[in-house]
Amino acid sequence: MSHEQNLDIGNFLTVSDVAARLNVSKMTVYRLVHSGEMPAVHIGHSFRINETAVADYLADAAVEADPSS
After folding, report:
1. d(CA 55, CA 53)
2. Cα–Cα distance, 7 to 27 (Å, whole number)
């Protein structure tokens, strides 16, 4: 018996895609993945990163301006 699941897993990006979107090097993205700061899926010999994970990382990394400056 086959079970089909309609999972909305979103779009996955390559390390190169994420690096281009964040304007950083691929090595920086790999460091974020290996440190656990940016969750990724390991598929074969490569990583894929969900677009939502990138958005969450940016939201967590955002800093507010210091009003005293």
Report:
1. 5
2. 31
Residue 44: which domain range? 12-60
In a domain, 54, yes or no: yes
Q: Is residue 39 part of a domain?
A: yes
Helices (H), the chain: 15-22, 26-35, 51-61
1: which DSSP letter? -
Task: Write out pLDDT tens, residues 8-40.
Answer: 677 999 999 999 999 999 999 999 999 999 999
CA dihedral angle for residue 9, residue 15, residue 16, residue 20, rounded to 10 degrees: 80
| pLDDT reading at 1 higher than 60 | no
- Report yes or no: 19 and 26 within 8 Å, Cβ to Cβ: yes
Whether the model clears a pTM of 0.70, i.e. scores above it, the answer is yes
